[in-house]
Amino acid sequence: MFKYLDEFKHKVVLEYFSGTMGFRRLSAHHEVNIGSVKRWVAAYRLHGMEGISRKVTRYDAQFKLSALQYMWDNGLSMKQTAAIFNVRNPTSIGIWESRYSSGGLEALAKPHNHARQMKAPTKKPAAKPDAERTLDEVLKENEYLRMEVDV
Q1: Which InterPro entries does the record associate with it (predicted)?
Q2: Neighbouring residues of 130: CB distance < 8 A, sequence distance ≥ 6
Q3: Is the whole-model pTM more than 0.70?
Q4: Residue 68 to residues 13, 16, 47, Cα–Cα distance (Å)
């Protein structure tokens, strides 16, 4: 996902509030996804510049539960809840909901490692020198190469 500078987002939001362009024209004019523009405007309305500035936040279990409870009590969508609680990614709310339904408050409190470990490169066995190969291995390779040529 492409990250936009805070100044750019602020400029787009202010253009929207000036009334000269709507969401569709703004997104086309700036070559930005219309959903991003709508999200920036909603976040700016509720939280001002803080709503559209980049941040990396770790939410505690109680905050997550409060957001979920508010969403359930008021029949809100994940997007609406994310905007109200100033959560950058609405899908985080859905992840919290599924974790809570499967493991309760404890599941919300567990830290989750988002970084994936790289697999160690698998080493292919080195090809045997021709002198060590059996007749059967040479014939199989020959058959394989002939099939490749036929294709």
Answers
A1: InsJ-like_HTH, IS150/IS1296_orfA-like, Trp_repressor/repl_initiator, WH-like_DNA-bd_sf
A2: 138
A3: no
A4: 28, 30, 19
